[in-house]
Amino acid sequence: MCGIVGITSNKQVTTSIINSLRKLEYRGYDSAGVATINEGHLNEVKCEGRVDVLEKNLSKSNLKGTIGIGHVRWATHGIPNSVNAHPHSSESVSVVHNGIIENSTLLKKLLIKKGHKFKSQTDTEVIVHLITEYLKKNDLKKSILKVLKKLHGSFALGIIFKDQPDLIVGARRGSPLAVGYGPNENYLGSDSYALKSMTNKISYLNDGEFCILKKDNVEFFDKKGKKVNKKVLEVSLDGQNYDKGDYKHFMAKEVEEQPTTIKNCVNEYIDKVNSDINIFNFPWKGNEISSIMLIGCGTAYHSCLMAKYWFEQLTTLNVNVDIASEFRYRNNRFKKDTLYIFVSQSGETADTFAALDLCNKNKMKTCSVVNVVESSIARESKFVLPIHCGPEIGVASTKAFLGQMLVLYILCLKISKMRKDIDKKKYLEKIKSLFSLSKLTKQTLETDNKVQSVCSSFAEIKGSMFLGRGYSYPIALEGALKLKELAYVHAEGYPAGEMKHGPLALIEEGMPVVVLAPRDEYYKKTISNMQEVIARGAKVLLITNKSKDEVYSENIWEKIEVENTSEDLLPFLITIPLQKLAYYSALKRGYDIDKPRNLAKSVTVE
Ligand code: F6R
Description:
7-stranded antiparallel sheet; binds fructose -6-phosphate
């Protein structure tokens, strides 16, 4: 992962670098650093921990410079500490890196033989020494070309040179990199978001390209060193709200924003007057698609899994789902009549991007469902469906999950109608039920007190299981993932009907089990499975929807009821108490909710 920034200017740059690094903390936050060139010297300040710590250290060190690079790290090679923090520097060169150099061990051995001394455990340091070595006999451009040829793996780089105090080199392979243009200064950043407070004029490097940034001009080159022309794009200076307001955490705010997420999405995609779907310019006809492949990672994968149930229910298509890191290495049978759908909040997840790239190279039909419309995945997809959630800052994905599910549901209805798989009456019914979803989500958020009281018990637990069938199975996986990543509790999501094939052995007296049993077609079966775990001592928290029929609630430990809607929209509502369960459990344990340990918001390594 990691975030990189570079600025060359006629003004001091450290404050702007720190501001950009704060925006890049979603990519990593275990250590940080800045390097500048000042009066012929390369200087760096690095620390373990967050940008706040770096800022304090910088104020003590009085680091100056009108050119500099900065980095926030998510450790891959070497523990998070100030030595392994970037930038990594030799006497003459300083480098920030996002990605992984796969042949670093071999390169390191060769460089040590040549007399180079390494300080850190990182893969990045080989880049510093390689450049230093090539610069002995070559000019800057030739040295860069030679270094890039030697490196295997993925990277985005920012490099400054003591003897060239007016320029920054940027290079990318695999990992994204943007260039921003300002008045008498230019910028390098992992994304346009990091640069938005300084400029809205952006260019993106294509895979294999590098650039040379000076304060008054930028040159781009392909992997052979041939100059390339770049379009300058004007991205929106979105004026989005990036602060927590009165909330304690971004996650709390983002969970509460979900009714708005749904409202925005419905307004964007549904024509209320004609009760129809506003997805224009969809590039393929219904009869050109006979199967769907949905691909994502983590929470986004869960929304793909959810969509499989809807597509199978509402269309006659064959539907498959895959985890991006598996799909990309599988011996796939690419088929022209398959629509490949990539789901990603950030639009930068390395495995999802690689899977998309693979499909594009095989000339497949590719469509993405993303939150960040300027992201790499959005840019490379043949068709893009934004989820219109606004920025999601908390590392745990919440409102984006609901947004992804909603867009996939709407896409499913659209394709179903195009293929004439759904009759008009049912189509109109489904559209109509979407109009009340935002309000129902808001009402379901009011289960807050109940979840808080349940959480005092959850905060103490060592492990838990989340069970569901049908539509509730992907949500069980999502509930377990949230509890793991936020409260650091081992939690397993499982299809309720599978318990007796092994995991039932885990159930012992007092073990907390969350059973998702909304009144849908699977309800009775799930309730039977619930009885099986209760009979073996489980302490069951039942999540269901409100109903006139009393649920069989004997021996249940606690029950949370969400609002009522059509069966296929209930997953939206039962997700909410699970998000809150994870939130309050983590709060009670005193963990850093918006930045859980070992994680990052955007996963840009494989
Ligand atoms: C979990 C979470 C992750 C992401 C995953 C994919 O709360 O946030 O599992 O869902 O890393 O990220 P995107 O959606 O950005 O591709």
